[in-house]
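ASSEMBLY PREDICTION REQUEST
Request ID: AP-0331
Submitted by: J.K., bench scientist
Number of chains: two
Total residues: 599
Priority: normal
Notes: Please return the full assembly, not individual chains.
Input sequences:
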Amino acid sequence: MSAVANLQQPLERPRRNVSRRRAYTTLIVSGSIVFVIVAVAVLAPVLAPHNPDRLFPNGLSAAGNPLGPSRAFPLGTDQFGRDELSRLLWGGRPALLISVIASVFSSAVGILLGVAAGYLGGWVDTLISRFVNILMSFPLTLFAVAIVLIVSPSLINLIIIIAAIYWTYTARLVRAEVLTLREQDFVSAAHALGATPWRLMIRHLMPNVLDTVIVRGVLTMAQVFLLEAGLSYLGVGVQPPTPDWGLMIAQSQNYYGADPGLVLYPGIAIAVTVIAVTQLGQSYRALRRRA
Amino acid sequence: MLRHVARRLLWSLFDLLVIVTIAFLLTYLLPGDPARTIAGPHASVADVARIRRQLGLDAPLYVQYGHYLWNLVHFNLGTSIEFGTPVLGDILAKFPATAILAVSGVVWELILGLPLGILSAVRQGGLLDRVSSVLSMAAIALPQFWVGIILLFVLAFKLHWFPLGGTGSPVLWYGFLPGLTLGIGGAAYYQQLVRSRVLEVLPQQYIATARAKGLSEWAVLVRHVMPQVMTTLITQIGMDLGYFMAGVVVVETVFGWPGIGLQAWAAIKALDVPLVIGTVLFGAFWIVLANFVVDSIYGLIDPRIRLR
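STATUS: Completed
Returned structure:
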């Protein structure tokens, strides 16, 4: 890298097109992967060769170990003699359900409170911002685990708790954006035309922060997906015998030596899902920003 | 500057008070009767009532709250149901292990993230840049416990390079894999953060000036780019340290690392609410403290912050 080369300004236009095209490709690829994952989860009852919870008497070796791949069990069986492929196909359902619903809820709460804090300012802002700060000060995993323990780990409780934690990130982001938006002319114009604060927030500010919220919501899904896996691993998420990727890893970890696939497959499934969802959010953001 | 710090300190104390209140309400409002738990399932109704009176659980809410605050001010976080010992003592006994893990987690984040971030920015689009961005993408997306299990299996179980868990002497050897597992996700994040920060700084005019003066690339990096990167990183390091000190339940559980996270997890399974809530409070204290320190340092580095 020579000094002279660096002094030259990069040519703006072609570079922009290249990165735009790349973002577009990423969007298509990651979007397709997410679509396939969701489709598989939805269609699992049709696609799975066996009932995921069924304990096959012939599903274990004579020594009681999980079986390797065979015609009846394409990916072998798990430590209880259940069909691994069927469990994998079913295993994304709880985490997907939790992350989608929790993310929608946290986005809705986040946009409402974020816009209110940013636009109204004053004591409303102080109250909301303080509360966001305080919620963010709780050690996340431990806090979630502690509450789940006390209220029992049902699907709905998990969703409520996760949404109650994650709206703070959306709210903080939206607030910051509204702070700059409200100085712009269209807000003054709407105000001068006699728009009420309520109308201004709903009709003028919210549409403008929607992109940010969508991107944040998608990234939240990825994070919740990981958190759900962690909670299931700790035994306070999805409960056995429900097939769930995080739980499958937890339950099979002692059989790693006998069949590494039991740990590897669900882990890779989680990683692929999280990467695809993250890339989807980031490429969408990149495209919107340059549009 | 002092006013800035003092104001921050007051807000931090306020935050702590609210956190304590939330924790108190959690233990008070949520189902589960501590008196019944202590007495055991076969105790008579009279026994349970007696224990409830002893614990002060029959008093009105505000009296219990006042009592709770009074105890907290005297460093009394309550008594563990399972062990019958003071909760704070239990936490402090396990805290050194967590602190070691937290520090080594941050060290791993820096060892891996900083050089990779700088190098991939300096050689943008090169092989190292592409490889490390793919790796960091994967590292962020992998569940921490999964990484831990794989490392444990390959490096400890198969190759016998490291112990299979727990702790012992030398700590560096036992803490190697837990620290790496804890740091790997953050390292990926640091790589991305440092890379984008360096890419922002490199086209600046003062970098061109420094080069024009005849400084070597190395000197430009160390003297002009690094300070910029570090101001960005210092907040992240501070927050990470706070979060890790607050207890890393998952990593400690995977490796059987005897810190406050593992203890809290055991307490959760034993329905030992005081110990769980005590650990949550202890963790929140660390995060609030980290927030405070980071904000104060930030005001010191960047005087504009103080004006707000």
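REVIEWER COMMENTS: Residues 35 and 150 of chain B are 43 Å apart (CA to CA).
SIGN-OFF: pending second reviewer
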